[in-house]
Specification:
This protein is an alpha/beta fold and 503 residues long. It contains eleven helices and 26 strands. Helix 6 runs parallel beside helix 8 (258-279) and helix 10 runs parallel beside helix 11 (375-384). The longest helix is centred in the middle third of the chain and has 22 residues, at 258-279. The model has no long low-confidence stretch (mean pLDDT 97). Bound molecules: alpha-L-arabinofuranose (AHR). Alpha-L-arabinofuranose (AHR) is lined by residues 27, 70-72, 172-173, 214, 292, 352-353.
Length: 503
């Protein structure tokens, strides 16, 4: 039997947990929008054509901000195509995903959908094929109350109130050769700085996110961040990080330790941002918006799903519809632990994506909607992570990985809400074979009651939820947990994720 020890101290704070860390992402991609959130004619659709069963699941998921409308899609998008009377909206080629975009849904409709899920819009402007003027135009359309050409158009289009978008992404993944308008760091930085300065002339209080690298494995990673921040530091509030994980050639041990990579990624970007801060003698701190993260079986997309046929331009094709296993959910829960561990600097994040496309929620046209395994670590963490993240002291046995060397078998983070006394601990056991018993010292938090112990684990780590078996994997109560004399003891089965709530 292996043992680990975790020490919690309310005086040892990382920082407040920003609700924006529980953001998500809706891109015009595959069936995320069409046949996902929007399906007029579905028995559960409301008068606007939005599926209310999906709305209910998004609310249960506990999503805060929603990034929109892309993603790679945004780098070729003309925002005005999605405004005005539907019958006169153009259909366009979406070059990013080799599809037809009907433009039935645009900014006004999506904003209406967000009110149903109590979400905040995080809007990305096109800095791929467009620039300063179009960013200014969409800002005027969205945020100016009335009395100008574009704000009056919005009102005429049925949105009398401004959308009041606070947080804006300056393009998407401009370091990626696949991106329309892909540029060097210096070229992008100049475009982003000009756009940011112009947007701030409209509203100096906007929160702006500049593109960091689309992955820590990019050849330009590090230099990209330095060059981009050196030119934009005074204009922006966040730099983005994007990361997707999948097992490489069946190496599950490394896959289970993916959070090690996320930790290093965040810490490198924070170090680069702080280096530029020092160079500029700036008072301001630029934080991280981790606005795309997930498990994504990208190899499957590249090898099987990618559509390149010049004669075939499908509408809302089934793309990136990964089915998530128990093991994927454990990795996913570990990534959330990494985000919370950096709560002082990761103050916004977006799970990519929300419905059907690498998503926690799946739908069938005319049929049901269901929760993937990854739904649960997200919904439970979003519900329980309140107050501030605590810097935990953890002694854990180690486990070998090819990608990261020896890593801690158990990983953990805790949150504590001073006002209510609520404390939550999130743990993963990354071993493929070993059960680990963890002692958690909670005496300094005055814990009197263990309220819930929700876990994801299964004899079959490849088990998943499907259309025919939507509840094959649901959270289980870990019955081994005990609170005694200021210590919680719990046994974590191999490949498991657990959330403890206490007060
Ligand atoms: O989320 C899927 C895609 O991944 C996004 O469109 C892009 O930004 C990233 O490469």
């Amino acid at each position: 039997m292996l043992n680990a020890h975790l020490d919690l101290d309310p005086a040892s704070l990382v920082g407040p947990v920003n609700r924006r860390v529980f953001g998500s992402f809706v891109e015009h991609l595959g069936r995320c929008v069409y046949d996902g959130i929007y399906e007029p004619g579905h028995p559960a659709a409301n008068a606007d054509g939005f599926r209310t069963d999906v709305v209910d699941l998004v609310r249960e998921l506990g999503v805060s901000t929603v990034r929109y409308p892309g993603g790679n899609f945004v780098s070729g998008y003309r925002w005005e195509d999605g405004t005005g009377p539907r019958e006169s909206r153009p259909s366009r080629l979406d070059l990013a995903w080799h599809s037809i975009e009907s433009n039935e849904i645009g900014l006004d409709e999506f904003s209406r959908w967000l009110t149903l899920v109590d979400g905040e819009l995080m809007y990305a402007v096109n800095l791929g094929t467009r620039g300063v003027q179009e960013a200014l135009d969409v800002l005027e359309y969205a945020n100016i109350r009335s009395g100008t050409e574009l704000s009056n158009q919005r009102i005429a289009n049925g949105s009398p109130q401004p959308h009041g978008i606070r947080i804006w992404c300056l393009g998407n993944e401009m370091d990626g050769p696949w991106q329309l308008g892909h540029s060097t760091a210096a070229e992008y930085a100049q475009r982003a700085a000009q756009t940011a300065r112009a947007m701030r002339q409209v509203d100096a209080t906007l929160e702006l996110v500049v593109c960091g690298s689309s992955g820590a494995g990019m050849p330009t990673f590090g230099e990209w961040e330095r060059i981009v921040l050196e030119k934009t530091y005074d204009e922006v509030d966040f730099i983005s990080c994007h990361a997707y994980y999948e097992p490489v050639e069946g190496d599950f041990a490394s896959f289970l330790a993916s959070a090690v990579d996320m930790d290093r990624f965040i810490e490198s970007v924070v170090a680069t941002a702080d280096h530029v801060k020092a160079l500029r003698r700036s008072e301001k701190t630029v934080n991280v918006s981790f606005d795309e993260w997930n498990v994504w079986y990208q190899s499957r997309y590249n090898e099987v799903e990618k559509i390149t046929d010049a004669d075939t331009w499908p509408q809302a094709p089934r793309l990136l519809e990964d089915s998530y296993s128990v093991m994927d959910a454990v990795v996913f829960g570990g990534l959330l632990i990494s985000l919370l561990r950096h709560a002082d600097r990761v103050t916004a994040a977006s799970l990519a994506q929300l419905v059907n496309v690498i998503a926690p929620i799946m739908t069938e046209p005319g049929g049901p909607a269901w929760r993937q395994t990854t739904f649960y670590p997200f919904s439970i963490t979003s519900r329980l992570a309140r107050g501030a993240a605590l810097r935990v002291r953890l002694d854990s046995p180690s486990t070998p990985t090819d990608a990261y060397g020896d890593v801690q078998m158990v990983d953990a983070v805790a949150t504590h809400d001073e006002a209510s006394g609520a404390t939550s601990v999130f743990l993963v056991n990354r071993s493929l074979t070993e059960t680990v018993t963890v002692d958690i010292a909670v005496d300094r938090l005055g814990i009197e009651s263990l309220d819930s112990v929700e876990s994801i684990f299964d004899d079959d780590i490849h088990a998943a939820n499907t259309l025919t078996h939507p509840d094959r994997v649901v959270p289980k109560t870990n019955t081994t947990a005990r609170l005694h004399d200021g210590t919680v003891t719990i046994s974590l089965p191999p490949v498991s994720w657990t959330a403890l709530a206490m007060h």
